Amino acid sequence: MFVQQFFVFLLFFVSPGQQSFLTFYIFQDADFLQEALASTITVDDFTARLFKIHQQILKEGRSQSIVLGLNRSDYMLDQRENDTPSLKQIEINTIAASFGGLSSRTPDVHRHILKMAGRLEESERILDNNPAAGLARAIAKAWELYGSEKAVVVFLVEDVQRNIFDQRYVEYELWKRNIHVIRLRFEDVFKAGSLDQDKRLFVDGKEVGVVYFRNGYMPDNYTSEQSWDARLLMERSRAVKCPDISTHLAGTKKVQQVLARPGVLERFFPDQPQAVQQIRATFAGLYTLDLGPEGDKTVSMALAAPERFVLKPQREGGGNNIYGSEICQVLEQVKESTERTAYILMDKIHPTPVRNYLMRQGSPLKISNCLSELGVFGAYVRQGKDMVTNECVGHLLRTKSSEHSDGGVAAGVAVLDNPLLF
Questions:
Q1: Using one digit for the tens of pLDDT, what is the confidence trace for 211-265?
Q2: Among this protein's residues, is 176 annotated catalytic?
Q3: Within-domain flag for 403
Q4: Which of 36, 199, 200, 409 has its CA 20 to 30 A from that of 320?
């Protein structure tokens, strides 16, 4: 159920432009992805399957020079004792970044509620926000560059769609531009999809110009070998993929951890110290669990003070992170094994709780200590060496009770929120 918070508060807004450049630079650097994921793919079957497709595409040669990225970089406001608060990155989502559609509607909801409460002045401080239009604008540009007015845009979706209304708002923006959208599953692509001699993708006789993945980010999304075959077929095609397999891998937790190592950002921004400084300032502490002295040190550090950290597997979709005493339980089981390399360790961020009301299905309305997470949507289109567009297209604010360590809106823990400017 779509739920929202009644009263909202201030958070700060940051530009995703450099993050988009970084994601694209990683996409281009096959050696970096190989180095970064070398340990992970030996123990994590899902990442290994994705990486195998990545290698096959590199071997065959990419069929499309147009790159479409619709990313969401998530942050929390870290407030340490006696320190200035600062935004710290939780993660970057390079595939199926959600809630751009629904968060385009929440400003009007909160403005209306504030007006009903007699708080007209506050209602005028709600930020305008329309990520759906911006995401669709980038998809439309990629479709235009593809160069066929008859081509359709495919939304690659799950068998059971729990967040369909969020997707529909982006879809409707494309229909406004007279761009034909069809919704398909992996199964549909496998059964009815094919490539012609020019590697154009056809499904049921329709040429596909853009594939927008709203599925394929979790192992359970691939219900059979046919699902993997369908993913490979789309990756081999001339259709613009959002994301392509390399960009998908660029958003993994292991890559995030490797980027935080000294000297790595300089690899991608060799003559831009200011960009390096700005990006690095958003990193929380990130630590490897690879076998060796450095990984051993990480294990010891986590076991000694698990309350300071979050243990993260290579999974998307929310609800996968490990906290507190459970960190010790997991690490005690894998600390002497290569299995530990399937995880990374991250400093736990400490936002200042705010008293507020959460409206959730099946829960009584009561005041709670609340924490918020800010997502910043970035959209970019690149053709060959040219960056055609790279812009911030909106934001997402999710708020939950401080009693919950993990879990998002879809899990019924967090609610959709809006920043209120002061």
A1: 999 999 999 999 999 999 999 999 999 999 999 999 999 999 999 999 999 999 9
A2: no
A3: yes
A4: 36
